[in-house]
Design goal:
CATH architecture of chain B: Orthogonal Bundle
Oligomer: heterodimer
Largest sheet of chain A: none
Number of helices of chain A: 14
Distance between the termini of chain B: 55 Å
Number of strands of chain A: 0
Radius of gyration of chain A: 25 Å
Helix content of chain A: over 70%
Order of helices and strands of chain B: HHHHHHHHHHHHHH
CATH superfamily of the largest domain in chain A: MetI-like
CATH class of chain B: Mainly Alpha
Shape of chain A: globular
CATH superfamily of chain B: MetI-like
Strand content of chain A: under 5%
Radius of gyration of chain B: 23 Å
Number of domains of chain B: 1
Largest sheet of chain B: none
Distance between the termini of chain A: 42 Å
Number of strands of chain B: 0
Helix content of chain B: over 70%
Chain lengths: 299, 277
């Protein structure tokens, strides 16, 4: 073996960290171009009055100040928070229930699980279109089912009072599988000893779930919760296709208003300021995700 | 003893009822989608609804391809998703290896931020940039923005796989005089092939499904399928058959891929809660 090779081995532990950076360089350049540049430019635009044509004068924090009194923006923030809260809680409950079911062995479990996962993999625009047809107040299949069961028909997305719950239903249908998969991963890693002890002590199924399973998979449920919060805050495709924020502005969330401001009214300066505020909101939540992950890694 | 058997029976019954309750919304939804796409317009707007197409017709699918330029849009989608996935693998796999080997958690966090940022926040500045560069109306802006989805998925999934590799084999190669590049290419890469499969499938699906980038950046001729199918809605509000057929055309490849590769997909999704855009 040559002298230089021996030297490499001797200095290997220290040099490893530095040399492996080269691998990440091309990707880092892409991240810089496609992710970092937009951020910086967004910050720059957010302190300017920026329409597509004409001058772009510096306006300081005027765009940010405008948000504080913009009733449409404030309304959108509230709707986003309500939509998010409901779109986190419902999938979490159903997702944990589904994970417990799919953790048990039964016939055709693989097929059932795949079918259950389909909604989250399907193209959001495509499923939104089908939901829209199902919500039709006169001809929609959902009102047919309701009336067949002797229940009153619903107005679904055609009324301000029912539009948010209806969209939450779509979101729950679509994203419960993701919660299920994360919690299922947690259930798979559980030790069996506590259960054996509990069975000897005569514990029933519910007691075992409540006092053993739930506390042990709690970290996974928390991770699922934070991921769900981030995704629910960002929801765009389904709301855009099904209601476009309507009727009126009854389902206009921050993301939809953002789109309208920037790409329908072409008020890019104000839109950029909204992006910054929206991003800070989401970032605060995702910091929580990172901390949860770290704590999990420590275990 | 009898009580024990009864309890077991009730437990099984509860399990099957639960599974049916949980799975049926997904199954019934897609069956209804199929039903809508195979019925003529009369049956689609009938009350009470017609559930089973009799006789089933492919007229809606023919209609979609005749009235809209769906062939072009399909080609667009294929070009964009394949390019974005291919480039993401090219850049993302080595990056994930570098991050995993040097334990650069900060770099991993940066990837996570990309996962967290709403797609719209890239779009305002990039829209202006592409306009200045005169690229609007070509597929280039779409491929570039789709990297925002595919690169984080590839890097995130692959970090997990590379961290799971034992590492001794690469060290042995290094001791034998291989460069780190050779150790990566000839030792780590073959071992990580299952991970690359997972990353490819997920990146492709979430790129294929993406709507928001296309709706802002695509011109008339550069629409991807999700954007094209949305336009079918705006112009033909009442014809449900073609609409359902168009929706099915867009999502069928993804559904088939999910059914065929369910093990890989489940493995990938549980590692990081991946989702695009």
């Amino acid at each position: 073996m040559s002298a230089s090779a021996t030297a490499t081995i001797a200095s290997a532990p220290r040099a490893y960290g530095r040399r492996y950076w080269v691998f990440a360089l091309p990707a880092a350049l892409i991240v810089l171009a496609v992710i970092l540049f937009p951020w910086i430019f967004t910050l720059f635009m957010s302190v300017h009055e920026w329409k597509v044509t004409g001058d772009t004068p510096f306006v300081g924090f005027a765009n940010y100040a405008k948000m504080l009194t913009d009733q449409r923006f404030i309304g959108a923030v509230w709707r986003t928070l309500i939509f998010t809260a409901a779109s986190v809680i419902a999938p979490l409950i159903l997702g944990v229930w589904a994970a417990v079911c799919f953790a048990t062995k039964f016939k055709a479990r693989g097929l059932a699980r795949t079918l259950f996962v389909l909604p989250m993999m399907a193209t959001p625009v495509a499923i939104s279109l089908v939901w829209t047809m199902m919500f039709h107040p006169q001809l929609g299949v959902l009102n047919y089912i309701l009336t067949s069961l002797g229940l009153p028909p619903s107005t679904w997305v055609y009324d301000g009072a029912t539009v948010i719950p209806t969209l939450v239903m779509v979101e729950t249908w679509q994203w419960t599988p993701l919660v299920m998969l994360i919690v299922l991963g947690g259930l798979a890693s559980l030790p069996t000893d506590p259960y054996e002890a509990a069975i000897l002590d005569g514990a029933n199924t519910w007691q075992m779930f409540r006092h053993i399973t739930l506390p042990l998979v709690m970290p996974f449920i928390m991770v699922a919760a934070v991921i769900r919060i981030i995704d629910a805050l960002k929801t765009f495709d389904t709301i855009y296709v099904i209601t476009l924020g309507g009727p009126g502005s009854a389902s206009e969330t921050i993301n939809i208003l953002l789109y309208q401001t920037a790409f329908a009214y072409y008020d890019l300066g104000y839109g950029s300021a909204m992006v910054v505020v929206f991003f800070v909101l989401i970032l605060l939540v995702s910091m929580l995700l990172l901390r949860l992950r770290q704590r999990e890694d420590l275990r | 003893m009898n009580r024990h058997l009864l309890r077991r029976f009730l437990g099984r019954l509860g399990l099957y009822v639960s599974v049916i309750l949980l799975v049926s919304p997904a199954v019934l939804f897609f069956l209804w989608m199929l039903s809508l796409s195979l019925k003529n317009e009369l049956d689609n707007t009938a009350w009470p609804p017609v559930f089973i197409p009799n006789p089933p017709t492919l007229a809606n699918f023919i209609d979609v391809f005749e009235k809209n330029d769906f062939l072009t849009y399909t080609i667009n989608s294929v070009i964009v998703s394949f390019s974005a996935t291919g480039l993401a693998l090219l850049f993302g796999v080595p990056a994930a290896y570098g991050i995993a080997k040097s334990k650069a958690t900060k770099a991993a966090a940066l990837i996570l931020i990309a996962r967290v940022t709403p797609g719209l926040s890239y779009l305002i500045p990039l829209f202006l940039l592409f306009q200045w560069l005169g690229l609007i109306g070509t597929l280039v802006p779409l491929v570039i923005t789709h990297l925002v989805i595919t690169v984080p998925i590839v890097v995130w999934v692959m970090i997990g796989f590379f961290e799971g590799l034992p590492g001794e084999l690469e060290e042995a190669a290094l001791v034998d005089g291989a460069t780190i590049w050779q150790a990566f290419l000839y030792v780590a890469m073959p071992l990580a092939r299952p991970g690359i499969t997972v990353a490819t499938i997920l990146a492709f699906i979430f790129s294929w499904n993406n709507f928001i980038f296309g709706v802002v950046l695509a011109g008339r001729a550069t629409r991807t399928l999700p954007v094209a199918v949305y336009n079918v809605l705006t112009f033909e509000q009442i014809s449900w058959g073609p609409l359902a057929a168009a929706a099915l055309i867009v999502t069928a490849p993804v559904l088939l891929l999910t059914l065929l590769m369910q093990k890989e997909i489940v493995a990938g999704l549980t590692t990081g809660g991946v989702k695009g855009g």
